[in-house]
Amino acid sequence: MIEEKIKNIRAKKMMLWFSMISMTMTFGGLTSAYVVSSNRDDWLKEFDLPQSFFISTIIIVLSSLTFYLSKKELLKNNLKNQILYLWITFFLATAFLFFQIIGFENIVSQGYYFTGAESSITTSFIYVLVLIHLFHLIGGFIVISIVIFNSYKKKYNSDNKLGFDLALTFWHFLDFLWLYLFVFLTAYN
Fold first, then answer.
1. For the purposes of burial, counting CB atoms within 10 Å of the CB of 114, is it exposed (0-12), middle (13-18) or buried (19 or more)?
2. What is the three-state SS of 77-135?
3. Against a cut of 0.70, is the pTM above it?
4. Residue 119 region, left (φ>0) first, then alpha (ψ -120 to 50), else beta?
């Protein structure tokens, strides 16, 4: 029985790691294509990311911190603070999404669209990279919602925290992925 439980835990962790490796490869390929495409004649040389992307970066880093603090409260069996930090994390994720939308609105207000005559290859790449990350963030919203729900149901404790740990790992991965994209897009332009 214990051996089967250990195998189940390992399988779930391995599936998460395979998913994260797959996502890393996707973004690695896209950022490589960005680098190769930057040699094109129609590449924008003087394009800066909107300030709201910087603000969203700070927010997503804070969300990782609050999720981590929730885990610390879980280990102390402090359900009230555990749930509080989870809700703060959810709120910060919502704020991240809000500032991402503001960033896209700023890009559009500069006259750059995803496709069409007003688009540029540079901003089209930025749209693709950020939108794919936002797609994964929707998965993160689902994950954190499940963790909040399960926390209210008192499903997690210091002996039963696998789902919480998997969610925390995925959340940190999403944050790291955004940090990578932000630094890449800021530094490479």
1. middle
2. CCHHHHHHHHHHHHHHHHHHHHHHHHHHHHHHHCCCECCCCCECHHHHHHHHHHHHHHH
3. yes
4. beta
- 124 versus 25: the higher-pLDDT residue is 25
Cα 104–Cα 108–Cα 110 angle in degrees, nearest 5: 120
CA angle 10, 21, 114 (to 5 degrees): 140
pLDDT class of 81 with cuts at 50, 70, 90: very high
pLDDT tens profile 35-79? 898 888 887 777 788 999 999 999 999 999 999 999 999 999 999
**19: closest CA among 185, 177, 141?**
177
Domain spans in the chain, listed from the N-terminal domain onward? 2-40+50-188
Pick from 120, 96, 98: nearest CA to 189: 120
Fold observed for domain 2-40+50-188:
Four Helix Bundle (Hemerythrin (Met), subunit A) (1.20.120)
Q: What is the DSSP string of 19-50?
A: HHHHHHHHHHHHHHHHHHHTTSTT--SS----
Dmax (CA) for the chain in angstroms is 63
